C-alpha cells in the first residue's frame, strides 16, 4: 500500500497544464483575430477619411470666395448628405451582408452578380435623388431658409448631380472589394483621387473661374475618377478574377430581394445621420443662434472626423463576421464581435481622453472668437463621451450588417434617436434651457440606448442559427440563379 502512487497527482497536473494550454490557445486566437481586424480596419479608416476629405477640401476652397459662397456651399453639402449620400451609402451597405457571406461560402461569382445588381438599383434610385437635388433651392426656401443662401446651395447641388451617380457606384465597388479583404488598393486609389481633387478645385475655382460651381463640379469629377480607377482594378486585377467574370444578365434578377435588405439598411444609416443634422438645425432656434450653431457645427465636424475611424473598424468586423458566417464558422464569428468590441472600447478611451485634453485649444482651430472657444471647451467633455459611445455602436452595427440584421437595427435606431434622443434634446434645450449642451446630451442618450440594445442583441444571439441563416441566404440566391439559367 505504501508503494501506491496517488492517481490524482498526475491527473491534477494534467488538468492544470490543459487549462493553461486552453488559455494560451484562446489568447492566441484573440490576438490573431485582432491582427486581422486591424489589418482590414486601418486601410479602411484611411479610405473613409480621404473620401470625406473631398467635401472638406471643396468647402475650404469655396471659403476663399466670400461668406455667402461659403454659407451656400456648406448648406448644399449638408442637404446633399441628408437627401442623397446617406441614402446611397445605406443601400450600398447591404452588400456587406451579401458579398461577405457569399465570399465566406466560396460562391465567388455571386459577388460580381450582387455588385452589378446593386449598381443597377442605386443608379435607378439616383435618378429620383437627382430630382430632389435639382430642386434644392425651392425646398430650402420652402423650409424657411434665407433666399440668397438657398439659391447658391441650389446651384451648387445642380452642378454636383453627376457626382451623385458616381457616388452610388463607388459604394458598391468599395463593398465588393471590402468583402474580399482587398483594402490596400482602395486606400492607394483614394489617396490619388484626393490629390487630384485638390488640383481640380484649384483649376475650376481660380483658373477657369467657375466660383462655387467649380467646387461642386470638382466633387463630381473626383467621384467619377475614383470609380474609374476602382473599376479598372476590378477588371484587370487577378485578385478579382473569380469574383468578377464580366457583366451578367443575372444582375437583372432578384432586384426585389436586394431591396428587401437594402431599404432597411438605408433606413438604419439615415436615421442616425439625420438625427445629428437635426441637432444643428435645432440649434438655430436657441436664444443665441449664431454662437450655438457655430459651436454645434464644430462639434459635428469633429464628430464626423472621429467617426471615420469607427466606420473603418465597423467595416472590418462586418467583413470578418459575414465571411465566417458564410463559411459556417459560428464561433469565429462570435469571437470577431468580441474582439471588435474590445478594440472599439480601447479606441474610444484613447479618443475620449484626447478630446478632453485638447478642449481648450480645439476651438482655436475653427474660430478666433473667445466666446466660441470657451463654449467649445465646455462642450468637449460631452463630445468625448459621444465619440466613445458612437465608436462602440458603430462597431456593433458593423457586426449587425455582417449578420443581415438591418431591419432590426432600423427599429433600434428609430427608437434610440427619435423616441429617446431628439425628444430629449428638445426638452433639455428648450424646456430646461440647457442650450447646445442639452441638444448634445440628447444625442448621448440616443447613443446609449442604441449601444445597450445592440449589446443585448449580440449577447442573446445563437451564432449557430446565424450560420444556418447565412447558408440559407446564399443557397436561396444560388437556387434562384440556377432556376433562371434553366428557364433560359
TrEMBL record:
Membrane topology summary? Multi-pass membrane protein
Spans through the membrane: 40-63, 75-98, 118-144, 156-176, 182-205, 217-234, 254-274, 295-315, 335-358, 405-432, 439-459
Which keywords are on file for this protein? Membrane, Transmembrane, Transmembrane helix
The cross-references to InterPro entries, in alphabetical order and at most eight, read:
MATE_euk, MATE_fam
Keyword match Transmembrane: yes
**A Pfam family this chain is assigned to:** MatE
Per UniProt, subcellular location reads as: Membrane
Keyword Membrane assigned: yes
State the similarity comment: Belongs to the multi antimicrobial extrusion (MATE) (TC 2.A.66.1) family.
Under which name does UniProt file this protein?
Protein DETOXIFICATION
**Which organism was this protein described from?**
Rehmannia glutinosa
Classification of source organism: Eukaryota, Viridiplantae, Streptophyta, Embryophyta, Tracheophyta
Amino acid at each position: 500500500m505504501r508503494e501506491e502512487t496517488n492517481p490524482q497527482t498526475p491527473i491534477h497536473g494534467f488538468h492544470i497544464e490543459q487549462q493553461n494550454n486552453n488559455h494560451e490557445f484562446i489568447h492566441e486566437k484573440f490576438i490573431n483575430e485582432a491582427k486581422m481586424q486591424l489589418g482590414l480596419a486601418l486601410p479602411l479608416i484611411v479610405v473613409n477619411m480621404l473620401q470625406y476629405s473631398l467635401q472638406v477640401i471643396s468647402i475650404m476652397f469655396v471659403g476663399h470666395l466670400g461668406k455667402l459662397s461659403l454659407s451656400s456651399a456648406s448648406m448644399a453639402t449638408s442637404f446633399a448628405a441628408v437627401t442623397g449620400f446617406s441614402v446611397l451609402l445605406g443601400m450600398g451597405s447591404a452588400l456587406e451582408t451579401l458579398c461577405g457571406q457569399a465570399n465566406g461560402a466560396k460562391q465567388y461569382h455571386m459577388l460580381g452578380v450582387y455588385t452589378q445588381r446593386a449598381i443597377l438599383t442605386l443608379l435607378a434610385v439616383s435618378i429620383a435623388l437627382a430630382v430632389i437635388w435639382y430642386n434644392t433651392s425651392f425646398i430650402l426656401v420652402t423650409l424657411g431658409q434665407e433666399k440668397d443662401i438657398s439659391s447658391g446651395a441650389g446651384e451648387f447641388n445642380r452642378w454636383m448631380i453627376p457626382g451623385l451617380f458616381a457616388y452610388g457606384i463607388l459604394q458598391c465597388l468599395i463593398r465588393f472589394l471590402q468583402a474580399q479583404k482587398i483594402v490596400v488598393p482602395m486606400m492607394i486609389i483614394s489617396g490619388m483621387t484626393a490629390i487630384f481633387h485638390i488640383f481640380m478645385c484649384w483649376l475650376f475655382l481660380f483658373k477657369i473661374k467657375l466660383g462655387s460651381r467649380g467646387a461642386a463640379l470638382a466633387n463630381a469629377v473626383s467621384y467619377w475618377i475614383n470609380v474609374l480607377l476602382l473599376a479598372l482594378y476590378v477588371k484587370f486585377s487577378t485578385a478579382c478574377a473569380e469574383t468578377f467574370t464580366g457583366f451578367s444578365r443575372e444582375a437583372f434578377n432578384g432586384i426585389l430581394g436586394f431591396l428587401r435588405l437594402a431599404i432597411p439598411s438605408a433606413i438604419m444609416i439615415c436615421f442616425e445621420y439625420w438625427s445629428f443634422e437635426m441637432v444643428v438645425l435645432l440649434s438655430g432656434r436657441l436664444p443665441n443662434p449664431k454662437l450655438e450653431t457655430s459651436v454645434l457645427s464644430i462639434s459635428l465636424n469633429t464628430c464626423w472626423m472621429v467617426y471615420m475611424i469607427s466606420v473603418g473598424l465597423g467595416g472590418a468586423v462586418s467583413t470578418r463576421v459575414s465571411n465566417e458566417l458564410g463559411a459556417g464558422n459560428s464561433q469565429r464569428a462570435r469571437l470577431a464581435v468580441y474582439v471588435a468590441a474590445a478594440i472599439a472600447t480601447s479606441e474610444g478611451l484613447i479618443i475620449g481622453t484626447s478630446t478632453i485634453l485638447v478642449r481648450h485649444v480645439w476651438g482655436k482651430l475653427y474660430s478666433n472668437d473667445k466666446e466660441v472657444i470657451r463654449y467649445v471647451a465646455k462642450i468637449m467633455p460631452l463630445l468625448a463621451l459621444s465619440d466613445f459611445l458612437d465608436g462602440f455602436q458603430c462597431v456593433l452595427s458593423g457586426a449587425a450588417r455582417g449578420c443581415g440584421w438591418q431591419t432590426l437595427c432600423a427599429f433600434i435606431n428609430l427608437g434610440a434617436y427619435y423616441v429617446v434622443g431628439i425628444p430629449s434634446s428638445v426638452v433639455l434645450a428648450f424646456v430646461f434651457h440647457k442650450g447646445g449642451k442639452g441638444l448634445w446630451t440628447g444625442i448621448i442618450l440616443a447613443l446609449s440606448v442604441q449601444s445597450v440594445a445592440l449589446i443585448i442583441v449580440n449577447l442573446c444571439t445563437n451564432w449557430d442559427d446565424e450560420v444556418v441563416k447565412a447558408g440559407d441566404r446564399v443557397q436561396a440566391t444560388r437556387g434562384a440563379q440556377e432556376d433562371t439559367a434553366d428557364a433560359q
